[in-house]
Design brief:
2 copies of one chain form a homodimer. The first copy, chain A, has about 300 residues and is an alpha/beta fold. The first copy, chain A, has 12 helices and 8 strands. In chain A, strand 5, helix 5 and strand 6 form a beta-alpha-beta unit. The first copy, chain A, is elongated.
Chain lengths: ~300, ~300
């Protein structure tokens, strides 16, 4: 019995790494490069993904489609795929792996349901496969077996109770802590810089917050590379929290920090091209140049 | 030459511990217990502070006054002291040690200036004296020598460049990180609880965020004891960040979390009476009961 044919839409940092590991574990892995950037073409080629040419062909040949996109693309992508499935008369399993709120994943699911395809909610936690300890794919929904069959193939797949929304909800909470913390650290360093207290604060951290400081030194300069994509993710987290009555301001602030970082020249970096010689202090000084000018600081 | 007579207004958790250590180092330490709570009386007595009876007597006998209060009391207290100094015709050095914004400390300073007294801005970082590694008193202003003379007397005193506002600004940034993080952790745990994902999130943290989880387990249950006092501190941090164009939403969210915790029955605990057998999960479940009811969760 041959393994199911999979498709990855679209193969960015995480997507192409997932595609590669699944291909290496014997799956045929399709993608659709129509209208995609040169970088996406290069990543897909490096991962050995097969270009299906167009969506209609992809939904005809794939048994299961994994959507791994920036949050804002989750819904439009599902609409395009549902349309293609309708035209092709096929219904491969559709897995939304995006960092979106439970509310939005339910909306995506209802778009897919029109085509008759099964829908799985999925939240990815951890670095891309091959970059550290296991990448965890949390999945939830009526039937998560097609995803669970991928467990151990370079990724870990864990099923959650609670139906559509549970996997996305877990991703929102997890990412709410990690990215919430990184942006909080950035905000605090920026405030100290603006108050002329950057050196004094770092000295105090060296005395009483060594671990936190060391984490900041490793992280703060790396944030612009992902900033554009993570604005939407923070907005999804804020929406998730607001939906259950928990303060959403932290992640509105986090989105604002990523919006600021996306304006800096470092936003053009990718994870591979980050200038690792740039210190935290140098990065903060450049970020600060892009803060809004406030009264009295002209 | 006898040591200067000091006064502490008002001797709460931090204030009475500071008073005690300075008394143990040979200073006469006054306070003013007029209209204060039974707990404040008990703390003052335990610390061996001398009750001056009223403010006018206190400003007559003290060479230097340290104000260590909840943020909302900083300005009214300075107004009362300035009035008493005017009536008594005295001008002891006034040190504002409160967790307030640079803007507010400058306002407090201008109130004190009317009386002709010297003003020192001070930000306290660390646990109360006697409870861990050194308590750092950062000080700034035209002449910080009277405070620097206390260095080594159970506290560490560090002078900062930058004039009035620098010491407060440093405290705001430092506390913005630590308390910002504790409230972010609380918000994330609350969201997971509300989504029915509390156990799943803790399991994932056990796998990939062990240190963070261990810090949360130590901290989350302790927050209500200080919640009432820290609402105002978070608002001061938000104001500080907004003044220099840095996103203030994180600390609006932090204030909201403390406002929630202040509504729980645990808000009546003091640092000494916290029920340390209560788990993080038990605390979160109780905090969640006080969240606003949202549409669909009635």
């Amino acid at each position: 019995m041959s393994l199911p044919t999979l498709a990855i839409l679209m193969p960015g940092d995480m997507g192409h790494a997932v595609g590669r590991t699944l291909r290496e574990h014997g799956h045929r892995v399709l993608t659709c490069l129509e209208g995609r950037s040169a970088r996406t073409h290069a990543l897909a080629e490096a991962a050995g993904l097969e270009d299906a040419g167009d969506l209609r062909k992809l939904v005809t040949e794939a048994d299961m489609i994994l959507s791994i996109l920036p949050p804002a693309s989750a819904l439009p992508q599902a609409q395009d795929v549902a349309k293609a499935m309708g035209e092709a008369g096929t219904s491969p399993v559709y897995v939304d792996c995006n960092a979106i709120s439970p509310t939005l994943t339910r909306e995506v699911g209802s778009v897919i349901a029109i085509s008759g395809a099964a829908y799985i909610d999925c939240g990815i936690i951890g670095l891309a496969p091959g970059k550290g300890t296991g990448t965890r794919f949390y999945v939830s929904g009526a039937d998560t077996a097609p995803m669970e069959a991928l467990n151990g193939k370079g990724i870990e797949v864990l099923a959650l109770e609670g139906g559509i929304g549970a996997a996305s909800g877990l991703k929102m909470c997890y990412s709410g802590l990690t990215k919430g913390k990184w942006t909080l650290q950035t905000a605090v360093l920026l405030a100290a810089q603006q108050l002329g207290l950057g050196d004094a604060l770092v000295s105090e951290f060296e005395f009483s917050q060594q671990e936190e400081l060391s984490a900041m030194r490793q992280r703060v300069s790396r944030l612009p590379a992902d900033s554009q994509r993570w604005i939407g993710e923070m907005e999804e987290i804020a929406a998730t929290f607001a939906d259950v009555g928990v303060p959403s301001d932290f992640h509105k602030g986090a989105a604002e920090i990523f919006r600021l970082l996306a304006k800096t020249p470092f936003a053009g970096e990718t994870r591979e091209t980050i200038d690792t010689s740039r210190t935290m202090e140098e990065s903060i000084a450049v970020y600060a140049e892009h803060l809004p000018k406030t009264p009295g600081t002209t």
